[in-house]
Amino acid sequence: MLLRLRFELDLYVNLRPARLYDDRLSPLRREERRGIDLLIVRENTEGLYVGMGGRFKKGTDQEVAVQEDLSTYLGVTRIIEYAFGIAQREVVMVDKSNAMTHAGALWQQQWKAVAARHPKIKTRHLYVDAAAMQLVRDPTQFDVIVTGNLFGDILSDLTAELIGGMGIAPSGNVNPETRKGLFEPVHGTAPDIAGRGLVNPIGAILSASMMVKHLGHTDMASAIEGAVESAIRAGECTRDLGGGLSTGEVGDAVARRLKD
After folding, report:
1. Which long-range contacts (CB under 8 A, 24 or more apart) does 178-184 make?
2. How many percent of the chain have pLDDT more than 90?
3. Does the annotation count 129 as an active-site position?
4. What are phi and psi of 147, to 5 degrees?
5. Which of 49, 82, 95, 213 is catalytic?
6. Could you say which of 82, 96, 143, 213 is catalytic?
7. Do 137 and 36 contact (CB within 8 A), yes or no?
8. Entry pTM
């Protein structure tokens, strides 16, 4: 359902912010590496997730599976343009063009073309393996990372762990031209523990904050995020963040701060 919504509504921008709200949630040993506040801008409607390919001689020892990676001039250009449009200081483009030479050549071509139109923004290019290493070594160096569908999916799960885990990671799927959007916690659903009060609601609440901001209510979005940060710092969290509250109790703690 999620992929279909992304494709049919042309929600080509996937936004995966990562901000550390409390040092105690960080797995990084060095304190100076914990000031994390970055954004992964992931191309959301192309790449390996389009489902092109197939299986030949399925079920035999001669089976061949083909999964095709799709990159278009339009898709690559518009996602890189979007990243430059929201960056504060630097855009890092991540690919694997040394191995994926055909798609990589298109990404490199459009990366250079778009970067030339934004001379005031610093730029860097990293291969995805180097980017993963740098995110672990020092995530504070990053502002905006722009990349394709698969690499964005993987790297954003890594950045989620750097800020405390999947339970607090929000995401947005948007089309800047049509203003359509879909907002959801990165972790998705957990039907096996539904109704037990164990799920961390922070990812969903922060996704709602992103939606409110998308709708133009920036002050309210900031208030929601501030309430979340206050609750986390006070230890009013579910057990995955070191607290002892239920799903509903964490929601109440955040709502109480908004009322105040």
Report:
1. 178/9, 178/10, 179/214, 180/9, 180/10, 180/11, 181/11, 181/211, 181/214, 182/2, 182/5, 182/6, 182/9, 182/11, 183/207, 183/208, 183/210, 183/211, 183/214, 184/2
2. 93
3. yes
4. -160, 175
5. 49
6. 96
7. no
8. 0.94
**Is there a catalytic annotation at residue 219?**
no
Comparing CA positions, the residue from 41, 129, 138 lying closest to residue 92 is: 41
Q: How far is CA 189 from the centre of its chain?
A: 17
Res 169: pLDDT: 97
Triad 117, 172, 26: Cα angle to 5° = 95
Superfamily of chain region 2-188: Isopropylmalate Dehydrogenase (3.40.718.10)
What is the pLDDT at residue 259?
A: 86
Q: Give Rg (Cα) of the chain.
A: 19
CA distance 14 to 167: 18
| Active-site entry in 157, 180, 240, 252 | 157
Neighbour count for residue 114 (Cβ, 10 Å) = 22
The full set of domain ranges for the chain reads: 2-188, 193-260
pLDDT tens, residue by residue, 183-227: 999 987 878 888 898 899 999 999 999 999 999 999 999 999 999
Phi, psi dihedral angles at 13 (to 5 degrees): -105, 120
The catalytic position among 57, 73, 112, 129 is 129
Does residue 120 carry a catalytic annotation?
Answer: no
